[in-house]
Specification:
The chain is mainly beta and about 1150 residues long. Helices cover about 5% and strands about 30% of the residues. The strands form 32 sheets. A five-stranded mixed sheet has the order 1-5-2-7-8, with no helix packed on it. Strand 17 and strand 18 form a beta hairpin. The longest helix is centred in the last third of the chain and has 11 residues. The radius of gyration is 59 Å and the shape is extended. The relative contact order is 0.04. The N terminus is likely disordered.
Length: about 1150
């Protein structure tokens, strides 16, 4: 939606003497504003129009400042349609300044109106300051109140979003680069993208504005590449300020055309997009493929159809095949029809309305179309309302080439399985296989088995060879089994042979080997054949010595016969074989199979009747109990031991088996601990009955008697009975044994003569005396102080208790209103009727109507009630030009007074004492300062009261750092940001306006903790000063120190360059780094992060003390790992190149890792 921004006035740097304030209008008009809306501002004191604006564009935006005199103003918004400023997109209206803030803020402007008036008081305000108001600009002026277009922006800070994906456009591989800059800083506008793939970067020039999401696609590789082809690409964005973005990494992959339908004979498992090769491949050579597509109406159960060709029925779907779940659905069927005959299609409807569901209360009409194998229409149903039946005959198909169909049983579970068949006929599968060992000489031979039970999986070795030694160039081998792609394999130049391990190959599934030849520089069949003649491969089980597939031999003989054949289009072929890793037959092993026999053979599976019985015993001839008949030692051999064998003796030896009675010593039991109470010095054997000395009171009658004590220490205390609970009423501080007599405190009145006496209380609180009286609150003489009723209560009796009254009641005790005698005329028709009289005094006078004015010409002295009939003379001023002209007068009495105009308000500034007619000219007295140059000048004042105050400019905000209590006018000098104002300090704050003493003196030095001369005090990095220990064999870092970051990176990535020699590969990496590619890898090294091992077999370790996040992407750009772990497990992922991204401090660092 187009918006028009109009700036109608530039801000002046100084205000005129008359203009002591200013306001800024920021207005967003609605769509119909040019035809309907405007607004204006009027000075209330002068009535003059201060400002008017009429928009000319829909959704116009107004942003303008006007200088003016302070005072009261009325702002009026108008809309001549009367619906307000709310059409389509709501409008907004804002008026304010830096002193008063938002004086009017309507966002949005709501409500309907023709004109909306608002009166505001605009106070004096110092003029605004011009400058750059964009906080993101380098020259941002915090004091500026209005932007003058002078902003200067910093260099671009980089990207907030980057992404890249590998994609295909036909056979051409492409990379889509996506990015978004971190802000709308115009220096972040992108003017070029540099893309590198090996050689010098390519530059693509264009213009991409900052702050928006952009995408740019570039080709990768030259046309179609081979399966398994990948290539690393790097991109760097160039900003308008000449700076560059971080490196974006992506690996391009091959785009392979082919049939992607796994059920098709032409299926290519390595295809990345379908090129239509699947079509027509399902029919035999004597039949053509056709496709029927039918969309059902609201009544599917009525529809049926069939196709015939000659006397054969190709397909039959009778009525009732579909049900109401198929309403509106479309079904597609493929059939094969005879190439020599036409075919006939018939559709039926049991109801008789065809497929025209809309004619029978439905909303859906059906459709039918038949296509040939190229997708062209053979026939379609033109009229769905065909009635009960419609037939179209003499339809013809066209031939589509496809592989020859071989019928047979394709189920390997049956004995009739045909490995050459590609069209399964299940009825040919008759006899299920019985798995087992089919070797008659085997131990587990099964005579009923029809197929040998084999090992389900194993390992093979793939060896590819090239007789020319120049590599396979654009030839590749791809291996697939059971729908799983096991990888692609090729060989680079410089080798004649290369081997690869094929792990966990299934025995029960066909192994398919795809040989690919991609057109490149060699294009004609002769060149392709010549190239292919160098190639050969072999797949074998090296452990068993079995060759599974072999194609070609090297070196060649007979002019290359036996090598892989050359190809025409399509440039791939398939070799298939059934892997075999042995069977489960078990050889016969003779031996003793009795596990209880002496000569039991655990490996034997057939008994040989030569078992020997086990005789257990001691087989050691020097043992105490040696057994000459034993053949199996049972561990019972006993060594001869001489000693005292008397079990009652002190020195009895339980291990002795030969007795020495003279050595026995008798046992003396007792306590052998000298520190014990019952110590026995003669004992040699403890009786475990030692009693320790326990001191205490041994008097059982004492308070502190200790039953455990055996030695009295004179500490006994006599027993004193009593209540020992200090919280109880009868607590006894001398008692040490509670006798159960404790009584709790019971608070209450203990005076038996009191009104509230409590016989259970033992502690007196709040006694109340008896007070007798009436305690009934409904009684006339109720006494609120009484607590004991004395029977004197008297009920309320309402009535008049005045004996002089007409309604006096002698029993009443509450006066409810007396009626007294009032004499007078009680006749309501009488002239002198008294409405208040209740006793008639015979004074009534009848009513007499007539003129009762004695000045009237028809005065009636007898009348007592005037009937309005009096006629009086009309005296007064009869001159219509006079001030006191009386239109009712009929006699001029000479009293006419002329008009005198003026202000008749005696409180007004211009009061006229002679005026008799107010002409609206009154001016109210307004006291105040009438000096227009004063701070408190009041334009509306007409009477100076001596209160004028001069303008004192300064900071009036008490929250500001430089608040001036004497100032009365804000001059936009307020400072709210404290900090270091020293431009040479390391923490210089260009936004600070008041120094807070926090400046830090810069210290230049080496800040790299990995450097030899790291300076912990340095706060400004001098990378040229850092020294690094190279310790390498060669390179520019000789002898031991270096400050070349690229050299440090090379020897860190490739130890060979440090430990062995600085070869061509090291130089290439060094040059690569010097050119700035890839900068992210260098950044990782600068952070002190070490990634190893790389390449890896399973696990990558990230060695760093930093808190990082990790993301791993495969070569297709798919995120496969995202965590904060410093150990990345790639064991479950295939071999190849992965993009590792480390995220630290909101920055992303890329590097490449290889799993092999």
């Amino acid at each position: 939606m187009k918006r028009l921004l109009l700036v109608l006035a530039l801000l002046p740097t100084l205000l005129s003497a008359q203009n002591n304030t200013w306001v800024r209008f920021q207005v967003q008009f609605d769509f119909y504003a040019p035809q309907e809306s405007n607004f204006f501002m009027v000075n209330d004191s002068t009535g003059s129009q201060q400002f008017f604006y009429q928009p000319t564009q829909p959704y116009e935006v107004l942003d303008t400042v006007i200088n003016m005199v302070s005072g009261f103003y009325t702002i009026s918004l108008t809309d001549n349609f009367g619906d307000g400023w709310v059409s389509n997109q709501p409008a907004s209206f804002k008026m304010g300044n830096t002193c008063q803030g938002d004086i009017i803020l309507w966002d949005p402007v709501i409500g309907s109106f023709f004109q909306r008036d608002t009166t505001v008081n605009i106070l004096p305000c110092a003029p605004p300051l011009l400058g750059c108001t964009d906080t993101s600009a380098l020259n941002y002026d915090p004091l500026a109140t209005s932007d003058d277009g002078s902003c200067v922006y910093p260099p671009c800070s980089g990207l907030s979003f980057i992404n890249s994906v590998s994609k295909c456009d036909g056979g051409q591989s492409e990379i889509k680069w996506e990015w978004q800059t971190a802000s709308s800083n115009p220096n972040c506008d992108v003017i070029g993208i540099h893309i590198q793939n090996g050689g010098l970067p390519l530059l693509w020039n264009s213009y991409w504005p900052a702050g928006l999401l952009h995408a740019f696609t570039t080709p990768a590789g030259q046309g179609q590449q081979a399966p398994g082809w990948t290539s690393d690409y790097y991109a760097v964005l160039e900003f308008v300020d000449g700076s560059f973005s971080d490196t974006i990494f992506q690996t391009a992959v091959a785009c392979i055309p082919g049939c992607m339908d796994p059920t098709s004979i032409a299926y290519n498992p390595w295809a990345t997009y379908d090129n239509g090769e699947c079509a027509g491949a399902a029919c035999p050579p004597d039949e053509n493929d056709i496709t029927l597509q039918i969309t059902l109406d609201n009544w599917p159960v009525e529809t049926g159809w069939h196709i015939t060709s000659g006397t054969d029925t190709v397909a039959s779907f009778p009525g009732g095949t579909y049900d109401f779940n198929d309403i509106g659905l479309t079904y597609t069927y493929d059939f094969c029809v005879d190439t020599t005959n036409t075919f006939t299609f018939t559709v039926t409807d049991s109801y008789g309305d065809g497929l025209a569901g809309s004619t029978s209360g439905g909303t859906i009409d059906g459709q039918i179309a038949i296509y040939d194998c190229t997708g062209d229409t053979i026939w379609y149903l033109q009229n769905p309302a065909f009635g009960n039946s419609f037939t179209e005959d003499s339809l013809t198909s066209i031939s589509c080439s496809g592989p020859t169909t071989i019928d047979g049983c394709m189920d390997q579970a049956y004995q009739e399985y045909d490995s050459l068949a590609n069209n399964n006929l299940q009825y040919l599968c008759l006899t299920p296989h019985i798995q087992g060992c089919t070797d008659p000489a085997a131990f587990n031979y099964d005579p009923n088995a029809s197929i040998n039970q084999i090992v389900p999986f194993g390992d093979y070795t793939l060896t590819i060879e090239d007789d020319g030694g120049d590599g396979w160039l654009n030839s590749y081998i791809g291996i697939e089994q059971n729908g799983v792609l096991l990888g692609t394999y090729a060989m680079g130049p410089g080798s004649y042979s290369q081997s690869f391990n094929l792990d966990s190959i299934l025995t029960s599934c066909i192994l398919n080997v795809y040989y690919f030849e991609i057109k490149n520089q060699q294009t004609n069949p002769q060149q392709l054949q010549f190239q292919t003649m160098h190639n050969s491969f072999i797949i074998e089980d090296t452990a068993l010595g079995n060759i599974l597939i072999e194609e070609g031999t090297n070196p060649f003989a007979n002019n290359g016969l036996g090598a892989l054949q050359g190809f025409a289009s399509p440039l791939w072929t398939v070799y298939s074989a059934s892997p075999f890793f042995g069977d489960y037959c078990i050889p016969t092993i003779l031996g003793c199979m009795d596990p209880l026999a002496f000569n039991f053979d655990s490996t034997a599976n057939t008994a040989d009747t030569n078992c020997v019985a086990i005789i257990y015993g001691c087989t050691n001839n020097i043992a105490f109990n040696y057994d000459t008949l034993a053949n199996t030692d049972d561990g019972s051999c006993i060594v001869e031991v001489i000693g005292c064998m008397d079990s009652t003796a002190f020195n009895f030896n339980p291990t002795a088996n030969t007795n020495d009675p003279l050595s026995c010593v008798p046992v003396i039991l007792g306590c052998m601990d000298a520190t014990m109470f019952n110590y026995n010095a003669a004992a040699n054997t403890t009786d475990n009955n030692c009693i320790p000395i326990v001191y205490g009171c041994t008097d059982s009658t004492a308070f502190n008697y200790n039953s455990s004590a055996n030695t009295n220490n004179s500490s006994c205390i006599s027993i004193t009975l009593g209540c020992i609970d200090p919280t109880q009423f009868n607590f006894n501080s001398l008692a040490n044994v509670d006798d159960g007599t404790c009584l709790p405190y019971i608070y209450g009145c203990t005076d038996s003569t009191a009104f509230n006496y409590d016989q259970l209380a033992n502690t007196n609180v709040g006694c109340i005396s008896f007070y007798y009286g009436c305690t009934n609150t409904t009684s006339f003489n109720y006494d609120p102080l009484a607590n004991m009723d004395d029977g004197t209560c008297v009920p309320f009796i309402l009535g008049c208790n005045d004996p002089t009254a007409l309604n006096y009641d002698s029993t009443a005790n509450v006066n409810t209103g007396c009626v007294y005698p009032l004499l007078g005329c009680t006749d309501p028709t009488a002239f002198n009727f008294n409405v208040n009289a209740n006793v008639d005094d015979n004074s009534c006078v009848p009513v007499i109507y007539g003129c009762t004015n004695n000045l009237a010409t028809n005065y009636d002295p007898t009348a007592n009630t005037d009937n309005g009939s009096c006629i009086l003379p009309a005296l007064g001023c009869t001159d219509q030009t006079m001030f006191n002209y009386d239109p009712t007068a009929n006699v001029d009495d000479g009293t006419c007074i002329p008009f005198i105009y003026g202000c008749m308000d005696n409180t007004a500034f211009n009061f006229n004492t002679l005026a008799n007619t107010d002409n609206g000219s009154c001016i109210a007295v307004v006291n105040g300062c009438t000096d227009s140059l004063a701070f408190n000048y009041i334009p509306a004042a007409n009477t100076d009261n001596g209160s004028c105050i001069p303008f004192i400019y300064g900071c009036t905000d008490i929250a500001a750092l430089n608040f001036d209590p004497l100032s009365n006018t804000l001059d936009n000098s307020c400072c709210y940001i404290g900090g270091c104002t020293d431009a040479t300090a390391i923490n210089y704050d260009p936004n600070a306006c008041q120094d807070d003493g926090s400046c830090i003196v810069p210290i230049i030095g080496c800040t790299d903790v990995g450097a030899y001369n790291y300076n912990p005090s340095a706060n400004i990095s001098d990378t040229t000063a850092c020294n690094y220990d190279a310790g390498c064999y060669g390179g520019p870092g000789i002898p031991y120190w270096l400050n070349d970051g690229c050299y440090a990176w090379v020897i860190d990535v490739d130890n060979y360059c440090c430990d062995n020699e600085w070869d061509a590969s090291c130089i290439q990496m060094y040059d690569y780094c010097q050119l700035g590619w890839p900068t992210a890898v260098e950044d990782v090294s600068k952070l002190g992060i070490v990634i190893y091992p790389n390449p890896t077999q399973n696990t990558i370790t990230i060695d760093t003390r930093l808190e990082i996040e990790v993301e791993v992407y495969d070569i297709m750009g798919k995120l496969i790992i995202a965590n904060d772990s410093k150990r990345i497990d790639l064991s479950e992922y295939p071999n190849g190149v992965y993009n590792l991204i480390l995220i630290y401090n909101n920055k992303r660092f890329n590097t490449k890792v290889i799993k092999q």
